[in-house]
Specification:
heterotrimer, B: alpha/beta, Methane Monooxygenase Hydroxylase, Chain G, domain 1, five-stranded mixed sheet, five-stranded parallel sheet, C: alpha+beta, Fumarate Reductase Iron-sulfur Protein, Chain B, domain 2, 8 helices, about 10% strand, elongated, 4Fe4S_Fe-S-bd (chain C), 2Fe-2S (chain C), iron (chain C), 2Fe-2S_ferredoxin-like_sf (chain C)
Chain lengths: ~230, ~675, ~250
């Protein structure tokens, strides 16, 4: 029969890779928001042990009596866990798809931004995941200690970062985080449809550099300040 | 038919005439009348009618989309890996339409007049008028499809004047008009593929047309094609109620041309051998501003827009001994700005054929520049030094930047500093299968559209008219005329075991096997190259009686050698690009001879061709309307037989015949 | 010039391929990359070896037929199509590794020839404006602001060669798709089907087995027409507007 318009296809078996990317972007942005808060908290240590311990106590009792003790913390933790699962799951799904799209590899591969970051985001992402586990064991569950065990959060932090290798581990993690953010922020903006012109692209590049720098530098200030004895 | 051989080469048969154009005095009512007279097909019957369309350029894709939309059952074929890659894509300049958006006095009649005059009065008035008439609809259709034509700041479409025409009627999309129009048609075609009305057969090459007498007293009709699946090598039979050839031109008979590597004459030639007359095969268009050949390795020539001649000055050294010098070292008084010297009125803007022929003359005199190929330097300078000093480099860059970049990429020379070198190249073929007003060939049920037919451009095509014709045929003309033929269908059901089908299939199979089994010593390309040289030297822009006779002998010898000494490696199964090329070259070797015979019999200079025996006292082209105001429609004379000439007289009722002059 | 070529040879889609080394001499600097391969094929034919199959047609950079990966780069070191790449971009004695586009949705047919019909199916799924022949209003009925027309044109320059897929570490066809979605979405004529188009095309893209975009930009670096990455972002925005096609 003659056709006037073509109806949309019926089968919807394949979930859109753009939807997966959007999940990655949204969860990633949630992490960035959290990182900024986290970084702000870390910087408290520059105001002294009391201020830091006070802050650590305060986030546990935030919102009381409307919220139970550690209420906010648990909300955050659940949110972070959900975001982590979403981020890793969609990342893995996309990784699998990408591998499936090229089962015969190139004999010769060009070294460049794309091939570097394709690996950096994925393997680097896994490295960050490992770091998060370590970080939780170190500061939350306290199953790993650097230096000695302390009851005061501030004391734990200061003791840990008085060791050069403690700082080394965290600095390395920040390097991976920085790389992940540099491309991740750009990618999130792309995925969310913000890059609509060449000028916009430049603005997004700049923004990703600024945010990455703020976060990485912000996180690195306390450990180095402690290492160099600027915090007592 | 007389049995007498003329010139020892051909016979003359009965005259031929178009019988489909309605007999109305007012030419502007002709198409309306024809559309009304053409029978209609009930929408419910359309899906029972099978249409085969070969070729997916502008004419083929547009027809496929339109007939699919109408509800016919369409099978579309192309040799490319996707219908989007047909060679219409390479057209740069633009598309004409009598919209008169600029209010500069354009009209259907003026476009009609310009096209007939541009064709040097060798085209059929009725067809050309219709072309001008539907031209405006093309633009509407393309804009609706999303073709991104150039626009002005007010949001309306921009137009430019093109090829020396005095009105601005050319619509364009930067230098990629052909690409944008083809993508529009391709998308419309793919939409129908998605809707299931069109079945697409990419990487399929048509190798034979099936002509069957159904025994209903109507005589033989085109009922299908034999195609080779280029991926599997399988020879397939496809049957239908009607066959449309939209297979483009045959410029590649010259080996070096601006056509795509795969452009070929096979579909048209196979149809010719089955009874379709070939109209004006010697009418080819040579484009003056192409990048010259650099060596034997070269596989094709690249065209640059003719607009370059608006600001560039063409010259060669006055003395042959200066030709090797750096052009910047040649003093002004030692340069010969030959077009400005010979044609002071038009200078560098003389028509394509004159600019081309004079460039060849300069090189043949030994004053060509650039690398010598076979001992001859084939190139002339196109110099922008004056334009750059007058307008500034930036202004030149903004006008021609992309062309200059293209030139530099190919030649490695910077045209802002060193004059460009240009040379003419074959670009388009006006000749093609003979069709009537309905675009039907002499085989009933075989329609031919676009560059593959001979119909609209006479002996020379105006710039920006090829795209117009392809889309006019595909979107508007064929879908209306073909229904008159289809309304008489569905034709008797045909079985693959019908003797005519079996015979067609076997002949294709035999030919493929023969090509692979010769197993000689020479590559296909070497034959193609040699044929191209013969054609270019002797059947190119300037022809002589003696040269053409030599060419015919040489082509015959070459063809014989081909069939005993060609080397095609690999097997007929699977992808075999040498085999594909071999089949195409074999057909070019037959076509080349017919082109030379046609050129030989046309003892006049006309359109793009200069016949040395027919010139004015001052060496300009001399047309002979008394003898040659006709279309030469050639009938296949059988293998080894002489072709038969059928003349279609051209009658001019609405336009007065005039001899052109550019002095 | 003298060159050492390593070329992927594969007889058909069903058998595995391998790299084969060929030494070639007498290559002109002025010849194009494909003319260099023509010369190799002439020499192979003389020796009775089957020539290397590769695709090309217009050889002026517009039809999108040609394309091989040269030393790990789609279309080679210059930003242009393989047919417009000239041998002066290489040095005498260079080793050149030549591979086909590698992506599972582009299966190898033979040697360097791949099947890109997946692109056609993506277009067939929705890469068009439904305007039946003869139904169009006058071309001047709807003015289009120049900046929209220009952006549409920029996106419409895509030649469908597939270099974006070949260059993408994920084997994604997003640049190709985004270009078409941007081209049609920028024009007033393309609005009625805008949501349906992006949903249908992206769905077909994924169903063909292409990878997802990770915004690395290798596609745009390889694109002979320089289609910018923002067409992909545009596609993402359009798909969100379309509710992810659900």
């Amino acid at each position: 029969m003659a056709t006037s318009t073509l109806p949309a296809r019926g089968d919807r078996k394949v979930s859109s890779s753009i939807l997966l990317k959007t999940i990655m972007a949204a969860s990633g942005l949630f992490f960035i928001g959290y990182l900024l808060l986290h970084m702000y908290g870390n910087l408290m240590i520059l105001s002294g042990r009391e201020a830091f311990d006070e802050y650590a106590h305060h986030i546990r009792t935030f919102g009381e009596p409307m919220l139970p003790e550690k209420g906010l913390l648990w909300v955050l933790r659940i949110g972070l866990l959900a975001a982590l699962v979403a981020h890793v799951w969609s990342g893995m799904a996309l990784w699998r798809r990408a591998r499936g799209a090229r089962s015969v590899r190139y004999v010769k591969k060009r070294a460049g931004y794309g091939n570097f970051y394709a690996a950096a985001m994925r393997w680097g992402g896994l490295a960050l995941l490992a770091f998060v586990a370590f970080h939780l064991m170190h500061f939350t569950w306290q199953t790993v200690t650097i230096g000695e065990a302390h009851a005061s959060p501030a004391a734990r932090v200061i003791d840990s970062f008085s060791h050069w290798w403690g700082v080394g581990i965290y600095a390395l993690a920040m390097f991976f985080l920085g790389m992940h953010l540099l491309h991740g922020i750009w990618g999130a903006a792309m995925t969310l449809g913000l890059n609509t012109s060449l000028r916009r692209a430049e603005q997004i590049r700049l923004t990703s550099i600024v945010i990455t720098t703020i976060i990485v530098v912000g996180f690195l200030i306390p450990p180095f300040a402690i290492l160099f004895g600027l915090v007592d | 038919m007389t049995d007498m051989l003329i010139d020892g080469l051909y016979r003359e048969g009965e005259p031929i005439a178009d019988t489909k154009a309605p007999d109305v005095a007012d030419i502007s009512q002709m198409w309306t009348e024809r559309k009304f007279d053409a029978a209609l097909v009930n929408p419910a019957n359309r899906r029972k009618l099978d249409v085969i369309i070969v070729g997916t350029g502008l004419a083929g894709a547009a027809a496929g989309a339109t007939l699919g939309e109408a509800g016919y059952n369409v099978k579309s074929f192309c040799y490319q890996d996707s219908p989007r890659r047909a060679h219409s894509i390479a057209a740069q300049g633009g598309i004409n339409a009598a919209k008169n958006y600029k209010g500069d006095g354009d009209s259907i009649h003026r476009l009609f007049y310009d096209t007939v005059k541009g064709g040097d009065y060798r085209s059929r008035e009725s067809n050309v008028y219709r072309l001008a008439e539907v031209s405006a609809d093309i633009i509407d259709q393309c804009v609706a499809q999303g073709v991104p034509f150039a626009r002005e700041y007010g949001g309306l479409l921009d137009n430019r004047s093109f090829g020396g025409v005095q009105v601005s009627r050319t619509f364009y999309a930067r230098g990629q008009t052909g690409q944008q129009l083809l993508i529009g048609a391709y998308q419309a075609l793919e939409r129908q593929v998605g809707a299931g009305t069109v079945q697409m057969y990419s990487r399929h090459e048509m190798l034979e047309v099936i002509v069957v007498d159904d025994g209903d007293g109507q005589g033989p009709r085109a009922r299908g094609i034999i195609a080779r699946d280029l991926v599997t090598g399988e020879i397939e039979t496809h049957l239908a109620d009607v066959v449309v050839l939209a297979t483009g031109g045959y410029g590649n008979v010259f080996f070096l041309s601006t056509n795509a590597m795969g452009s070929n004459v096979t579909a048209a030639w196979r149809a010719h051998r089955k009874g379709a007359y070939f109209g004006n095969p010697c009418y080819t268009q040579i484009h003056p501003t192409c990048i010259p050949q650099t060596g034997e390795h070269q596989s094709k020539l690249t065209l640059m827009s003719e607009s370059l001649r608006n600001d560039g000055r063409i010259w060669v050294p006055k003395r042959a001994e200066d030709c090797e010098k750096d052009p910047r070292q040649i003093a002004e008084e030692d340069r010969d700005y030959y077009l400005e010297r010979i044609y002071p009125g038009f200078g560098n803007l003389v028509p394509r054929d004159i600019a081309s022929r004079q460039a060849k003359n300069m090189c043949d005199e030994g004053r060509g520049v650039g690398p010598a190929v076979d001992g001859v330097r084939r190139g002339v300078y196109l110099d922008f030094a004056d334009a750059i000093s007058r307008l500034g480099e930036d202004a030149v860059r903004s006008k021609y930047g992309n062309l200059f970049d293209m030139y530099e990429r190919i030649t490695g020379e910077n045209p802002y500093q060193v004059p460009m070198r240009i040379y003419p190249a074959v670009h388009y073929t006006m000749g093609g299968l003979w069709v009537d007003y309905d675009l039907q060939s002499t085989i009933p049920g075989l329609f031919v559209t676009g560059e593959a037919n001979f119909s609209d451009h006479g002996a020379n095509r105006l710039g920006a008219s090829a795209l117009m014709q392809g889309l006019a045929d595909g979107y508007f003309v064929l879908p209306n005329t073909i229904r008159d033929y289809l309304a008489k269908g569905p034709y008797p059901k045909l079985d693959e075991s019908h003797p005519a089908v079996v015979e067609a299939q076997r002949s294709v199979q035999d030919r493929v096997e023969r090509l692979v089994s010769v197993n000689g010593t020479r590559s296909v390309d070497s034959y193609h190259r040699e044929l191209g040289k013969i054609m270019w030297e002797k059947c190119g822009m300037e022809r002589t009686d003696a040269g053409l006779r030599e060419a015919i002998e040489e082509i015959r010898a070459l063809r014989q050698d081909f069939w005993t000494n060609v080397r095609v490696l690999g097997t007929p199964e699977g992808l075999n690009q040498s085999l594909e090329r071999a089949g195409r070259v074999a057909d070019f070797l037959e076509l080349g001879e017919l082109m030379c015979i046609d050129a030989l019999h046309r003892r006049e200079s006309c359109g793009g061709h200069f016949r040395a025996e027919s010139q004015t006292e001052d060496g300009e082209a001399l047309r002979d309307d008394d003898e040659f105001a006709y279309v030469a429609a050639w009938e296949w004379g059988g293998d080894g037989g002489a072709p038969v000439l059928h003349k279609e007289d051209l009658v001019y009722e609405h336009i007065e015949l005039k001899q052109r002059s550019y002095k | 010039m003298k060159l050492a070529l390593s070329i992927w040879r594969q007889d058909n889609p069903k058998v595995p391929g391998r790299m084969v080394r060929y030494d070639i001499d007498g290559v002109s600097e002025d010849s194009s990359f494909l003319e260099m391969l023509d010369l190799l094929n002439e020499q192979l034919t003389e020796k009775g070896e089957e020539p290397v199959a590769f695709d090309s047609d217009c050889r002026e950079g517009i039809c999108g037929t040609c394309g091989v990966v040269i030393n790990g780069e789609a279309h080679g070191p210059e930003r242009t199509t393989t047919c417009q790449l000239h041998m002066r971009s290489f040095k005498d004695g260079d080793e050149i590794v030549i591979e086909p586009w590698r992506a599972d949705p582009f299966p190898v047919i033979k040697d360097l020839v791949v099947d890109r019909s997946a692109f056609d199916r993506i277009i067939a799924a929705g890469g068009f404006i439904s305007a039946n022949t003869g139904s169009a209003p006058d071309a001047h009925a709807t003015p289009v602001p120049k900046e929209h027309a220009d952006r549409a044109f920029m996106a419409a320059e895509c030649i469908g060669c597939g270099a974006c897929v070949a260059a993408c570490p994920n084997g994604s066809g997003s640049l190709f798709m985004g270009a078409k979605i941007t081209h049609l979405g920028e024009l007033p004529q393309g609005q009625p089907e805008r949501d349906a188009r992006v949903a249908a095309m992206t769905h077909q893209h994924d169903a063909e087995g292409f990878g997802g975009c990770t915004n690395l930009g290798e596609c745009t670096r390889a694109c002979p027409k320089g289609i910018p990455l923002n067409v992909i972002s545009q596609m993402n925005a359009d798909l969100r507007h379309a509710g992810y096609g659900r």
